[in-house]
Every structure is written in structure tokens, then in C-alpha cells.
């Protein structure tokens, strides 16, 4: 008998929460003696540790090997930005990019076990100095552009320990504070060379790295289970809603062909209508970006603010400080907004809630305002179905910058049950979808706490807040 997703979810959530409780109850050993570190961002460190500039314990160089292949150069493989960003360890399991390099570049930037690679620039300062350690011999693999290659001095520093140090709070904050830029942030070689790193004896660095390898592997396995669980629950919720708004709640209801391949059969008493017959639509106003404010005014709904199912505010938020060009560009609660371009065109949609108002609609975003024949929330769930998304994909143009037009959106069809049946379906979605939604929120909360615990454990170990030497078998 197959376990229900809710039962699987409960079991995995209980397992994660049990680990969290055990971690909270665990009293880690402290070092017998501490001394002041002498820097604001670092609390006292074990008395026998050193605090040292990175340049005195490692060789640091910035790679200039780019991804272009040139005639007359030798073929190589490049470890690039994304390889480091998405992996803690650089191994032969990664599919490296093919490129070419000069002989002197091959000698200079060849990866060696124990090298630490870090991202030296990014569009987001929080992504500065993301580390990964080279975990094995990788003949012919070079450090690629946009990366710094750090090779620990023999007998003084241990690469896996340094990699964990770069990933820890406090130590990594040095780089975020030094990163310069407006639209893209970067570090100079001196920024990295002059950074401070707490250094225990090398044998102790190895013990700390071994301890963190074991503990993070355990946590990562649980995090991955949570990620899969969240995906499973979201798929289950999406399928439940999609079936309700395209097939109804009565499994015995007479069906009829919809006349639309992707929609299939629908209840015989339902209509199938183009979106344009159900809404008043409007494309946003071409506000001048020169007039945007980063801090005050009416929030602007741009493509960057629309994510799958909700509006997102934060660093990408922009505001209009003056009067709106026309009142019709002010959004109302229940309006559906759809991004018209980008890699997730047609999948970025949200329904405006009362607490988000006031908002202004910007160019390349479409607003759909439901007419009385259809309830706004029912329409929202209808355009959020995977089948609707698949049909949107057939209308996308320009692979380089995918986009759809207002005409494309309005020509797409959705099911239209009687208004009272729409209410019944929305009630079902609220109850059954809500149950899955609670499990998703619970799983996401546990996921976030596990990620935070992982980060806190790394930071505590590499800054000497806990003594893990006896946790490692010699």
C-alpha cells in the first residue's frame, strides 16, 4: 500500500524536528581558554589560534581564462562561476566547460586538490566570495574567469577548512562589506589578500573540516529530503487545483469535448471561453526609469516583482514618487498581474491582495480584472494550471528574450462553470488545498531552520565557539 503524501510529510517533518531538538539540546564542548580577537566582527577566539591575513597563509590569484576558444591555443576544461556557486566541492562529477588556453595559463591556473575557489564578483553582494574546495586531482581543468583561486601554504593552512571559513558568517561578511559596485559588485585582489582568517594548528583545521564534512552531510541529506517533499506537496496541490478548475468536483458528471486539445473533456454544462471575454485587460504604463525611487512613493509592479503565485518585494522594489500618470494604472484587490517577458513568461502571475495596495502597473506587465461572469480567484487558479502554462509556451516568441503579447493572453481559453459552482470549487480548494498548503509551509519552515542550523554550526566550528576535536576519530 502506497503511503499518502501527507503521511510521508508528517514522518519526514517529525524526523527533521527531532534532529533540530537534539541539536538544540546538545551542549558542545568549549575550548579551555579564549582571548580577544581584536576585530569587531569576531568574538574571542581560542587562545592558541592565530588571526592572520589570508595573503600570509595562501597564494591568491584572479583567473583571466575566459570561455572563448581561440585558434593556436590548447584545449582545456574550465571550472566556472556556476560550478563554484552550486557546489561545495569541485570534483570530476561536474560537467566542465570546454575552452582553450595558452601554455602559461595552463601552468598558472591548473586546479590542485586543496585549492579553494571563490566568486569574486556578482550582481548581488550576498553572492560575493561563495567558496568551493577542489576535492581531487583534475588534470586539464583550469580556474575560470570571475573566480579567485586560493592555494593554501603547505603546513600552514588546510583547503577544506579555509573553504568552510569563507562560508561562515562574520568571516564572509568582510567581503560583502568590501564589495564595490552598483549593478555589479566585485572584490579587488587586495580585498581578498588582506582579509582576516582565524587559524588553528593545521591538525586542528583538519579535525574541524572532518567534523563539518560529517555533520553537513547529515544535514544536507535531510535538507534534500525536505526539498523533495516540498516539491511533492506543491505538485500534489497544483494537480488538485488544476483538476478542480478543469474537470469539476463531480466524478460522475457527464463530459463533453472542449474542442481544445490541451484541455480535453470538460463537464457538459460548462462553457469554454477565451480569457478576453472574461476580463478587462490593461498593459502597464511605460514609466521612465529615470523617475524611479528606491525608497519612497507608490510601489511599481514590474516583471521582477512577480513570482509564481505571489508578489515579491525587496531589493528589486522600485517606487514612483509623484502622482500616477492616470488613475487606471492603479491596481485593485483581486486584479491578476502577469509578466509578459523573461525566462518564466506566462508562469509569473499573482493576484493582488488588499494589503499590497496601492500599486502601479508598469509596462510589460498585464493586468486582468475579472468581469461579473467569473470570480477573480477562480480565474486566477485557471491561469495557474500547468496545462495553461504549456499552452502559453506555444505563443512565446524570440528565444533570446521570450515574451507574449496581450493578444496572446486574451486568446487563451479557460473553463467557465456556473457562478455557484465556481464558489463550490473555490471552497473545495480552500479546504483541501489549504491542508496541503499548511504542510508545505511547515516543511518550508523546517527547511529554513535546517539551513540556518547548518550555517550556524559551520560558523561556530571555524571561529572556535565550539571544540570539536574529540568528535573526530583519529
Strand line-up in the sheet with most strands: 4-12-8-10-6
Mean pLDDT figure: 86
> Which runs of at least 5 residues are low in confidence (pLDDT < 50)?
none
Shape: elongated
Proportion in helices:
25-40%
- What top-tier CATH class of the largest domain fits best? Alpha Beta
CATH architectural grouping of the largest domain: Alpha-Beta Complex
| Fraction of residues in β-strands | 15-25%
Largest sheet: 5 strands, mixed
What structural class results from the helix and strand content?
Answer: alpha+beta
What is the number of strand segments?
27
Topology readout:
Elements: H1 5-25, E1 34-35, E2 45-46, E3 50-53, E4 58-62, E5 74-79, H2 81-85, E6 89-90, E7 97-101, H3 103-109, E8 116-119, E9 121-122, E10 131-134, E11 141-143, E12 147-152, H4 159-166, H5 173-178, E13 185-186, H6 189-193, E14 196-199, H7 202-247, E15 255-257, E16 265-267, E17 271-274, E18 279-283, E19 298-301, E20 306-307, E21 310-311, E22 319-320, E23 336-339, E24 349-351, E25 360-361, E26 365-370, H8 376-383, H9 386-393, H10 406-411, E27 413-416, H11 419-462
Parallel strand pairs: 5-11, 6-10, 19-25
Antiparallel strand pairs: 1-2, 3-14, 4-12, 5-7, 8-10, 8-12, 9-13, 15-16, 17-27, 18-26, 19-22, 20-21, 23-24, 23-26
Helix pairs in contact: 1-7, 1-11, 4-7, 7-11
Concise structural overview:
The chain is an alpha+beta fold and 474 residues long.
Report on this structure.
The protein is of the alpha+beta class. The chain folds into 3 domains: 1-48 and 201-248 and 417-474, no CATH class; 50-199, DNA methylase specificity domains (Adenine-n6-DNA-methyltransferase TaqI, Chain A, domain 2, Alpha-Beta Complex), CATH 3.90.220.20; 251-416, Adenine-n6-DNA-methyltransferase TaqI, Chain A, domain 2 (Alpha-Beta Complex). Helix content is 35%, strand content 20%. It has 11 helices and 27 strands. The chain has helices at 5-25, 81-85, 103-109, 159-166, 173-178, 189-193, 202-247, 376-383, 386-393, 406-411, 419-462; strands at residues 34-35, 45-46, 50-53, 58-62, 74-79, 89-90, 97-101, 116-119, 121-122, 131-134, 141-143, 147-152, 185-186, 196-199, 255-257, 265-267, 271-274, 279-283, 298-301, 306-307, 310-311, 319-320, 336-339, 349-351, 360-361, 365-370, 413-416. A hairpin with a 2-residue loop joins strand 20 (306-307) and strand 21 (310-311). Helix 4 packs across helix 7 (202-247). The protein is elongated. The model has no long low-confidence stretch (mean pLDDT 86).
Amino acid at each position: 500500500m502506497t503511503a499518502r503524501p501527507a503521511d510521508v510529510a508528517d514522518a519526514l517533518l517529525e524526523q527533521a524536528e527531532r534532529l533540530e531538538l537534539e541539536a538544540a539540546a546538545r551542549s558542545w564542548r568549549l575550548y579551555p581558554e579564549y582571548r580577544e580577537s581584536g576585530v569587531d566582527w569576531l568574538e574571542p577566539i581560542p587562545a592558541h589560534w592565530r588571526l592572520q591575513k589570508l595573503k600570509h597563509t595562501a597564494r591568491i590569484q584572479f583567473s583571466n581564462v575566459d570561455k572563448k576558444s581561440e585558434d593556436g591555443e590548447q584545449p582545456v576544461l574550465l571550472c566556472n562561476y556556476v560550478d563554484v556557486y552550486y557546489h561545495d566541492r569541485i570534483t570530476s562529477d561536474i560537467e566542465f566547460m570546454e575552452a582553450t588556453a595558452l601554455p602559461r595559463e595552463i601552468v598558472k591556473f591548473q586546479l590542485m586538490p586543496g585549492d579553494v575557489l571563490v566568486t569574486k564578483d556578482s550582481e548581488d553582494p550576498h553572492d560575493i566570495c561563495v567558496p568551493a574546495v577542489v576535492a581531487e586531482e583534475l588534470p586539464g581543468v583550469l580556474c575560470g574567469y570571475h573566480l579567485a583561486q586560493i592555494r593554501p601554504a603547505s603546513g600552514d593552512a588546510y583547503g577544506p577548512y579555509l573553504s568552510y571559513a569563507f562560508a561562515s558568517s562574520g568571516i564572509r561578511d568582510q567581503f560583502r562589506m568590501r564589495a564595490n559596485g552598483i549593478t555589479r559588485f566585485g572584490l579587488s585582489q587586495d580585498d581578498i589578500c588582506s582579509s582576516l582568517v582565524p587559524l588553528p594548528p593545521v591538525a586542528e583545521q583538519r579535525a574541524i573540516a572532518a567534523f563539518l564534512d560529517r555533520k553537513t552531510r547529515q544535514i544536507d541529506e535531510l535538507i534534500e529530503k525536505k526539498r523533495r517533499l516540498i516539491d511533492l506537496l506543491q505538485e500534489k496541490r497544483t494537480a488538485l487545483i488544476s483538476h478542480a478548475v478543469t474537470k469539476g468536483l463531480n466524478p460522475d458528471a457527464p463530459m463533453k469535448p472542449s474542442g481544445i486539445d490541451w484541455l480535453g473533456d470538460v463537464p457538459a454544462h460548462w462553457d469554454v471561453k477565451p480569457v478576453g471575454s472574461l476580463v478587462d485587460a490593461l498593459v502597464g504604463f511605460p514609466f521612465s526609469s529615470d523617475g524611479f525611487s528606491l525608497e519612497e512613493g507608490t510601489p511599481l509592479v514590474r516583471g521582477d516583482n512577480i513570482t509564481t503565485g505571489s508578489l515579491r518585494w525587496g531589493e528589486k522594489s522600485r517606487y514612483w514618487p509623484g502622482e500616477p500618470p492616470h488613475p487606471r494604472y492603479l491596481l485593485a484587490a483581486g486584479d491578476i498581474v502577469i509578466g509578459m517577458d523573461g525566462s518564466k513568461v506566462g508562469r509569473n502571475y499573482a493576484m493582488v491582495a488588499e494589503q499590497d495596495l496601492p500599486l502601479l502597473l508598469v509596462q510589460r506587465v498585464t493586468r486582468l480584472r475579472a468581469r461579473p461572469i467569473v470570480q477573480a480567484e477562480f480565474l486566477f487558479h485557471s491561469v495557474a494550471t500547468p496545462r495553461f502554462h504549456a499552452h502559453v509556451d506555444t505563443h512565446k516568441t524570440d528565444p533570446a528574450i521570450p515574451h507574449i503579447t496581450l493578444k496572446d493572453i486574451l486568446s487563451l481559453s479557460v473553463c467557465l462553470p456556473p457562478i455557484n459552482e465556481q464558489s463550490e470549487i473555490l471552497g473545495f480548494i480552500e479546504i483541501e488545498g489549504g491542508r496541503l498548503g499548511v504542510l508545505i509551509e511547515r516543511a518550508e519552515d523546517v527547511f529554513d531552520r535546517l539551513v540556518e542550523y547548518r550555517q550556524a554550526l559551520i560558523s561556530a566550528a571555524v571561529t572556535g565557539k565550539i571544540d570539536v576535536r574529540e568528535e573526530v576519530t583519529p
